[in-house]
Design brief:
mainly alpha; 4 helices; single chain; 57% helix
């Protein structure tokens, strides 16, 4: 819920707790909080921040970036031993990159592209006939 009055939000939270309790649902106190929007929040692996001008900035969750870096390195090993093809690795990476394109993540995408090309340069050149496309 979003509202400008903190007291109203506290009242709503108490009412929600009563309804949940009557249904047998237990709310997690760590996840059910009243906070300022300027502090930002994470929802569906995306970090949302509100600026002073009212603009909403979406950034990818740092954990998902770390996980993808590790996956790319595992994909590189799998391609080397023949368990995975270069096209499978590229498809997975491009899918993740498409999801990331919805966020304000230009620098992250550039850094990940550099990592991908560094890991798969030879395979990319063979597949593309010398030109690399991501």
């Amino acid at each position: 819920m979003i509202h400008h009055d903190k007291a109203y939000l506290q009242h709503c939270l108490e009412e929600m707790k009563k309804v949940c309790e009557s249904l047998g649902i237990v709310l997690n106190p760590k996840k059910t909080q009243i906070v300022k929007l300027t502090r930002g929040m994470t929802f569906l692996k995306t970090r949302f921040n509100l600026t002073d001008t009212g603009r909403v900035i979406r950034k990818p969750n740092k954990r998902s970036i770390t996980v993808m870096r590790r996956k790319l390195k595992v994909f590189r090993r799998w391609v080397s031993v023949g368990k995975f093809t270069y096209l499978d690795a590229r498809t997975s990476y491009c899918s993740w990159k498409g999801h990331l394109a919805r966020c304000n993540s230009y620098r992250t995408i550039q850094a990940m592209d550099a990592l991908f090309i560094g890991l798969f340069l030879i395979e990319a050149q063979v597949q593309a006939g010398g030109n690399i496309y991501l």
